[in-house]
Amino acid sequence: MKPLLLALSMTTLCLAGCGDACLSLAQQICSCQLDQPSVDACNQRAQEAQAIFPERKPDQQFCQHQLDAKACDCNKLDTAEGRVGCGIAYP
């Protein structure tokens, strides 16, 4: 589970700067944390990253696609294949 938490943290930082769709995706990924303090910390990192990383249209499109495809639900993030499909891990 630790690799998932690290991946979620890194992904949150990478995705959070992408605008509303990416912030929504980051929040969805953060919701998979095991407890509320972890969810809150993950969401806080996402909000902080949003102010640092510039918004790009391809990022928004990717995040919106992932949301529409439901590619990053918690059950999928429990598997290596699911993390790759979500875009938070390399194949």
What is the number of helical segments per DSSP (H or I, 4+ residues)? 6
Strand composition percent? under 5%
User: What is the number of independent domains?
Assistant: 1
* DSSP summary, beta strand count: 0
Classify the secondary structure makeup into a structural class: mainly alpha
Structure description:
By secondary structure, the protein is mainly α. The chain has one domain (2-85). The chain contains six helices and no strands. The protein has helices at residues 2-15, 20-30, 36-52, 57-69, 74-77, 80-86. Helix 1 runs antiparallel to helix 2, helix 1 (2-15) runs parallel beside helix 3 (36-52) and helix 2 packs across helix 4 (57-69). The longest helix has 17 residues, at 36-52. The two termini are 18 Å apart.
Attribute tags:
single chain, 91 residues, mainly alpha, 0% strand, globular
In short:
With 91 residues, this protein is mostly helical. It has helices at 2-15, 20-30, 36-52, 57-69, 74-77, 80-86. The protein has one domain (2-85).
SSE topology:
Elements: H1 2-15, H2 20-30, H3 36-52, H4 57-69, H5 74-77, H6 80-86
Helix pairs in contact: 1-2, 1-3, 2-3, 2-4
